[in-house]
């Protein structure tokens, strides 16, 4: 056995490896091996039972025929490389019986018809097969889906078309996991799915073209833990058998279908449901109390519907609820103060509704926003995390982009988005205490008052959007201490003074500050004059003002200005009295005559008269 997994090996494979003819297990996965796959090096390793070379940079063509005589081979993983795996030429017949095969994202038969490897049909011991992300074409292979030994099958991310195949012999599949998402499949799902796949724990048919009603038989899949039917064309109603008394279901994803005009469905007795995604389904009406029948709910996404009414004040009764996504609905009323009791809340998104009233200052009491804490979102695994690691995905808006988050980024994400509502009043200064908050969006409301200086204590914040409100005053200079901030927007308010243009704030363009008539300084094109120091500390302002006065006194402009002022004052001090008083003029000219006579007499004494 030779295990070199994750040792960051670079370059090619040592040719000496071909001499290890008794080697039964070789793991070179997660390295930086590159160059064409060294087929000649591997041809002599006919004792291999396990070959794992995934997640490298091998190129060229790997002909699967090279393994024809590897009679002991059971597990092979070639996934995530840069070569083409050719399974069809030259013609060959396998001497092995595989247990697991992972050809995910490795160009299977790219130049040979993009067909499913034909040798798979001769395998009788299969438990795990992944052919994901290979652009394979044609109809879904029913002989593979209804294989009597297979537990896990992933065909996601290909170009399969046609309908969902039925068993030609009415055989029962032993599949625990089936992923056919992100293909071009259409038509209706089989009504007898509970009979065809009685042991399913996981079913993903998302991002296809399926239509019609969701069969009520889905409620009879009593072992089902994850069901993802999102982004298809399903319509009608969500079967009662699926949303009631289904105690095994942990994640239900129905987002992006056509349930328009339906009221919010009722749920009951789903004791293990932790993740409920009903985004963009066109549901109307109000949120029902039936959600209280989901005691361990952790993620609730009902965004982009037509729901209305008040936001219920009983969400604090969910001890594990961490992500609430209600954006783009028609909710009105106030933000319930009871939300402040949700100490595990990580993301709160009420954007694009009609909420009014003030922002509850008690939101600063939520522990998960005051210090870094990881949200536990365990993956769903079947048999092996290498082949069947299904992670929860949640769409979030951060830094102006709506993206799917999963894994570690999702578990660490925190944020508040209350933008595009009708909130009023001042921004609570207590929000500045939320040091672990990554994103705060309060844009497009009617908020007034000053920007709280306490925002500068939110050291971990990455996005702060306060645009389109009625904020006044200056931008606190201490806000430049937010070293991790990458998005900052205070545009279209009534702010004044100079813009703090230091540290990360030098990266923000004028779009972050426009619409404030009295803001000045870079990146705006408006120069600051008397108010240039208005938002700096007093001692710094005094020091700079003294420096300005010293510099002004020593300038040429100051010198010549003094001369001009003195000349003007002296001139008019003489001329103005003469213009206003006749007596002054007589006396003035009399004095002038006397002075002239005296001067002439003095001069004549120096020049004697000629005889």
Automatic annotation (TrEMBL):
Residues 537-547 have a biased composition (Basic and acidic residues). Its main location: membrane. PANTHER family: LRR RECEPTOR-LIKE SERINE_THREONINE-PROTEIN KINASE ERL1, RECEPTOR-LIKE PROTEIN 14. Belongs to the RLP family. The keyword Acyltransferase does not apply. InterPro entries: Leu-rich_rpt, Leu-rich_rpt_typical-subtyp, LRR_dom_sf, RLP_Defense_Trigger. GO terms for biological process: defense response; response to other organism. SUPFAM superfamilies: L domain-like (SSF52058), RNI-like (SSF52047). The keyword Signal does not apply. It is found in: Cell membrane; Membrane. The chain crosses the membrane at residues 557-580. GO terms for cellular component: plasma membrane. It is a single-pass membrane protein. Residues 528-547 are annotated as: Disordered. This is Uncharacterized protein isoform X1. The gene is LOC113714704. Keywords: Cell membrane, Glycoprotein, Leucine-rich repeat, Membrane, Repeat, Transmembrane, Transmembrane helix.
């Amino acid at each position: 056995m030779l295990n070199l997994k994750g040792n960051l090996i670079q370059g090619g494979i040592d040719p000496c490896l071909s001499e290890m003819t008794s080697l039964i297990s070789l793991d070179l996965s997660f390295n930086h091996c590159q160059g064409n796959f060294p087929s000649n090096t591997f041809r002599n390793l006919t004792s291999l039972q396990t070959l794992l070379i995934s997640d490298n940079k091998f190129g060229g063509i790997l002909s699967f025929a090279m393994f024809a005589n590897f009679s002991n081979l059971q597990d092979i993983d070639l996934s995530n490389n840069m070569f083409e795996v050719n399974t069809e030429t030259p013609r060959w017949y396998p001497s092995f019986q595989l247990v697991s095969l992972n050809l995910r994202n490795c160009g299977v038969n790219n130049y040979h018809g993009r067909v499913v490897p034909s040798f798979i049909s001769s395998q009788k011991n299969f438990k795990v097969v992944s052919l994901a992300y290979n652009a394979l074409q044609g109809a879904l292979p029913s002989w593979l889906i209804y294989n009597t030994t297979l537990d896990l099958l992933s065909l996601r991310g290909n170009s399969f078309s046609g309908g969902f195949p039925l068993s030609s012999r009415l055989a029962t599949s032993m599949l625990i996991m089936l992923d056919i998402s992100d293909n071009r499949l259409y038509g209706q799902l089989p009504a007898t799915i509970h009979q065809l796949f009685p042991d399913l724990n996981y079913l993903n048919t998302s991002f296809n073209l399926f239509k019609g009603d969701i069969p009520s038989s889905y409620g009879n899949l009593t072992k089902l833990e994850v069901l993802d039917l999102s982004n298809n064309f399903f319509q009608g109603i969500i079967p009662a058998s699926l949303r009631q008394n289904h105690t095994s279901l942990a994640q239900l994803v129905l987002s992006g279908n056509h349930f328009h005009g339906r009221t919010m469905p009722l749920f009951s007795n789903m004791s293990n449901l932790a993740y409920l995604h009903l985004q963009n389904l066109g549901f109307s009406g109000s949120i029902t109390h039936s959600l209280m029948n989901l005691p361990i709910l952790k993620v609730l996404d009902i965004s982009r519907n037509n729901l209305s009414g008040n936001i219920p004040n009983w969400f604090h009764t969910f001890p594990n609820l961490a992500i609430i996504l209600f954006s783009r609905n028609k909710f009105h009323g106030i933000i319930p103060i009871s939300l402040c009791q949700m100490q595990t809340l990580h993301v709160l998104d009420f954007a694009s509704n009609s909420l009014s009233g003030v922002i509850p200052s008690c939101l600063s009491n939520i522990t998960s926003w005051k210090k870094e804490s990881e949200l536990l979102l365990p993956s769903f695994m079947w048999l092996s995390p290498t082949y069947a690691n299904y992670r929860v995905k949640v769409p979030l808006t951060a830094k102006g982009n709506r993206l799917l988050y999963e894994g570690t980024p999702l578990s660490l994400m925190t944020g508040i988005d209350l933008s595009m509502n009708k909130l009023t009043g001042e921004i609570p200064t207590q929000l500045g205490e939320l040091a672990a908050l990554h994103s705060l969006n309060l844009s497009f409301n009617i908020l007034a008052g000053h920007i709280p200086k306490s925002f500068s204590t939110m050291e971990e914040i990455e996005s702060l959007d306060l645009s389109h409100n009625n904020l006044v005053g200056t931008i606190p200079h201490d806000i430049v201490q937010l070293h991790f901030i990458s998005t900052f927007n205070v545009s279209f308010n009534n702010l004044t003074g100079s813009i703090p243009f230091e540290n990360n704030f030098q990266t923000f363009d004028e779009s972050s500050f426009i619409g404030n008539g009295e803001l000045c300084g870079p990146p705006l094109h408006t120069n600051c004059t008397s108010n240039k120091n208005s938002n700096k500390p007093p001692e710094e302002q005094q020091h700079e003002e003294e420096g300005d006065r010293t510099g002004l006194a020593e300038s040429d402009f100051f010198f010549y200005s003094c001369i001009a002022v003195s000349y003007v004052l002296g001139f008019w001090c003489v001329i103005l009295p003469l213009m206003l008083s006749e007596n002054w003029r007589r006396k003035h000219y009399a004095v002038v005559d006397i002075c002239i006579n005296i001067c002439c007499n003095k001069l004549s004494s120096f020049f004697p008269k000629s005889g």
